[in-house]
Amino acid sequence: MAVESKVPAADASLRVLSYLARQRGPVAAATIARSLDLPRSSVYQLLRVMRQHGYVVHLPEERRWGLGVAAFELSGGYARHEPLSLLGRPLLAGLVDELGESAHLAVLHGRDVLYIVEERAPRRPHLVSDVGVRLPAPLAATGRAMLARLPRHQVRALFPDRSAFVDRTGTGPTRYSELRSLLDETTRVGHATEDGEITRGLASVGVAVLDHVGWPAASIAVTFEQGTREADDLVERIGAAAAELSRRISGRTRRVGDGLSP
């Protein structure tokens, strides 16, 4: 028998957030109230408070609610803890041994990616993506792989105008429409690429690591010198490592090449 919470508002708030996390897109407040058997007035009040703190966003035209940036930062905070690093490190080491290129594991942190595992291949170029380094998500293959898995309104909320974009090498998206085109292409081909946007002369291929409800918990990427490798030659092996890490963190089997559409 379930134990009744002595803090009903906190209990209801967590239930609402958990419910939204399981959905494939924004839902109406009435649907939330009905699904969780909560008073509609209470749900509206909770949503307003969570919106003020960034945990949910309201889409007025659709009259629906979805997870906000703060909720994804919580997810990223979980991903940065040791379990994900410990589970991912041997998989990255295997990639380095097999491909002879450096590999890394990153999580989303607001508009950036945060690198939590870095496996360097011997005699390969120096990388800026060391453990603890943050880089702009729209420029990095790791970031693009994860952003492509987020619903469109979540990406739009992260990058509302040109001021949200960062330039490192004079290439890469500078506005939302350009980022959207990149993410749509990532969705179409099933993996993300970068080509000199982080560091001139270096390219990367990245694949998202999904949690038990299909949200991007992290991403794995391999970096190599431009012109020395073809992305298509790397995708299958990187995708297999990402699928295996997804299985390890969620217990859910995902096939290499599963669709990326949110």
TrEMBL record:
The keyword Transcription applies. One of its GO terms (biological process) is negative regulation of DNA-templated transcription. Residues 7-69 form the HTH iclR-type domain. PROSITE patterns: HTH_ICLR (PS51077), ICLR_ED (PS51078). InterPro entries: GAF-like_dom_sf, HTH_MetabolicPath_Reg, Tscrpt_reg_IclR_C, Tscrpt_reg_IclR_N, WH-like_DNA-bd_sf, WH_DNA-bd_sf. Keywords: DNA-binding, Transcription, Transcription regulation. One of its GO terms (molecular function) is DNA-binding transcription factor activity. Residues 70-251 form the IclR-ED domain. Pfam families: HTH_IclR (PF09339), IclR_C (PF01614). PANTHER family: HELIX-TURN-HELIX TRANSCRIPTIONAL REGULATOR, ICLR FAMILY (PTHR30136), HTH-TYPE TRANSCRIPTIONAL REPRESSOR ALLR (PTHR30136:SF24). This is DNA-binding transcriptional regulator, IclR family.
